[in-house]
Amino acid sequence: MKRIVTTSWDDGNKLDLKLLNLLNKYNLKGTFYIPKSSELKSLTDQEIKLIAETQEIGAHTLTHSDLTKLSSAEEISKEIKGSKDFLEQLVGKEIKMFAYPGGKFDSRAKQAAQKAGFIAARITKQFEFSISQDKFEFATTIQVYPYPFRKRDENHYHLSRFLFQPLQNSFFQILKFKLPKKSFFSWPNLSQALFDYFLAEGGIYHLWGHSWEIEKYNMWNDLEEIFKYVSQRPNCQYLTNSETAELN
């Protein structure tokens, strides 16, 4: 039975270096999806090269644009192919993977990613343990994100319904996979329960997130707890996103 553990990290924030150190500490593999420029991107070219020494670099458009809002196929192609060309020139390696900014895509974006020469493209759909037959909708298992409630912040302080969104998004999935009751109460509990399900059933355990968001919600200790839990399992393969896609 195949069991693959993979991770991915979006946006190219300076805090990706902290993720890099944690991944290497626990011998885990990750793919870092980095745009050429955006408000969120703060890695320097040298830091991107450093990440590329031990982990995978993936493309994330030139400007972190919502591809579904671009008016022409030419604009979409420029964003996608341009990001591949930029990163390949920078790190001196083939860039095989692409991630749609914000997980937003349409048929035009998928076609452009295929035409650009990527082997797959990651989306943000969760609670998946396999790659669909369409590798340009490469889904994930769980995001590093506050759970069961989103913590209040300056942008959503008065939106009480928004605070319950993480639990609402996960409630029926917990029931579907018959996860233990403790899964309702914390992000580490839910992550561990999904990993235990994956160990029993096989497939792909794909953890993803944003380093700036992990910092914002003070989740580094939770993340390291999960890294410890999922690492060094003798019956698992630890692969980058592209290595995972190539095996499926």
CATH architecture: Alpha-Beta Barrel
The helix/strand order is EHEHEHEHEEHHHEHHEH
Q: State the helical fraction.
A: 40-55%
Q: What's the count of strands?
A: 8
Q: Give start-end ranges of low-pLDDT stretches.
A: 156-160
Number of helices: 10
Keywords:
alpha/beta; TIM Barrel; 8 strands; 248 residues; six-stranded parallel β-sheet; globular
Task: Outline the fold blueprint.
Layout: E1 3-10, H1 16-25, E2 30-34, H2 45-54, E3 56-59, H3 73-91, E4 97-99, H4 107-116, E5 120-122, E6 142-143, H5 160-163, H6 165-176, H7 187-201, E7 203-209, H8 211-216, H9 220-230, E8 237-238, H10 241-247
Parallel strand pairs: 1-2, 1-7, 1-8, 2-3, 4-5, 6-7
Helix pairs in contact: 3-4, 7-9
Task: Please provide a written account of the structure.
- The chain has ten helices and eight strands.
- It is of the alpha/beta class.
- Residues 156-160 have low confidence and may be disordered.
- The longest helix has 19 residues, at 73-91.
- Helices cover 42% and strands 14% of the residues.
- α1 links the parallel β1 and β2.
- The protein has helices at residues 16-25, 45-54, 73-91, 107-116, 160-163, 165-176, 187-201, 211-216, 220-230, 241-247, and strands spanning 3-10, 30-34, 56-59, 97-99, 120-122, 142-143, 203-209, 237-238.
- The protein has a single domain, classed as TIM Barrel (Alpha-Beta Barrel), CATH 3.20.20.370.
Summarize it.
With 248 residues, the chain is an alpha/beta fold. The protein has 10 helices and 8 strands.
